Amino acid sequence: MEKKRLLTGIQSSGTLHIGNYFGALKPFVDSYRSYESHLMVADLHALTTLRDPNLLRGNIVDVVKDYLAVGVDPREAIIFKQSDVPEHTELAWMFECLVTVPFLMQAHAYKDKVAKGIEANAGLFNYPMLMAADILLYDAEVVPVGEDQRQHIEYAREAANKFNLAYGETFTPPQEMILKGVGIVPGTDGQKMSKSYKNTIPLFGTREEIEKAVMGIVTDSSCERPEHVYAIHTLFRSESELAPLYEENKGKYKNLKEALANDIDAFISPMREKRDNITETEVKSILKEGSERAREQASKKMSDVRTKIGIAI
Ligand code: ATP
Ligand code: MG
């Protein structure tokens, strides 16, 4: 039997953080071998918030290194760069012509970013349709994402349905795969941890960087248990393991933060060692091969789409 397809991606908009790991990378690593899997570097999406070519180039290489370090085997997944497959932007345009402005205006991720002071450029606004194209181009039925992306998967289903209704059965509506108990990992300011919000605990930070970020987690002096420290801690240890630690250290935020920094560091260090041995040459060759395979699939799909919508004469 043919395997179902699975796809996920992370924007090369900054250094990956533990929210990216628990929201997207862990569910991917845990399940990708049961599917025909695609892992994308969303470099075009990153342009919605990043305008520094050197930084972008570096981030692209770093994201692929991170993918490999967390345990993705490039022989068992298609690892590719979004911009290497121009069919993504082509299909996004077609979806943009099927959905309305008021529909896109309801997107939480867009509203949250604008509220954070990020420029409301048209790319940021249209982001969900590019994401719909990323998924639907490959008939991916399963999409591991964090809770913050649930609505965007709904938008991708809507794009598929709208297209199918207008032009006949073409796209498979995808399903999100969201890890239970993770939710939205809070950042050091208590809001969603995001690369573009500068509130992250880096996934592959040095011991010092992790410690610095953890010490900066906001705490409310009126509670005995620092809410955000605890929420992050539950990702690394069970609640029953944490209960005595938090009981013994009621109100002692510094001790609790030190314990959290130790746990994060211990968790990350084997992956960090693996990451240090991955070269840029290796990354480039993986992306080259993956992008060729992705492009082959995407161009087949687009040729059907072009015929259906009436631009192939
Ligand atoms: P940006 O600020 O540029 O949007 P980001 O940190 O939100 O970056 P994305 O590249 O947008 O990361 O998202 C990649 C994946 O990581 C998505 O599946 C998303 O749901 C997941 N993710 C991002 N932040 C979190 C978080 N705080 N908690 C859980 N999952 C998250
Ligand atoms: Mg995001």
Number of helices: 13
User: For the residues shown, what is the average pLDDT?
Assistant: 97
Number of strands: 5
Structural class: mainly alpha
Low-confidence stretches: none
Percent of residues in β-strands: 5-15%
Distance between the termini: 36 Å
Gross geometry: globular
Helix and strand element order: EHEHHEHHHHEHEHHHHH
Alpha-carbon Rg, integer: 20 Å
Describe the protein.
This protein is mostly helical. It has helices at 18-31, 43-46, 53-69, 87-96, 101-105, 108-115, 122-136, 150-167, 207-215, 227-233, 239-248, 253-276, 280-309; strands at residues 5-11, 36-42, 77-81, 142-144, 175-177. Strands 1-2-3 form a three-stranded parallel sheet. A two-stranded parallel sheet has the order 4-5. The longest helix is centred in the C-terminal third of the chain and has 30 residues, at 280-309. The two termini are 36 Å apart. The structure holds adenosine-5'-triphosphate and magnesium ion. Residues 10-11, 13, 19-20, 22-24, 49, 145-146, 148-149, 182, 184-185, 192-196 line the site of adenosine-5'-triphosphate (ATP).
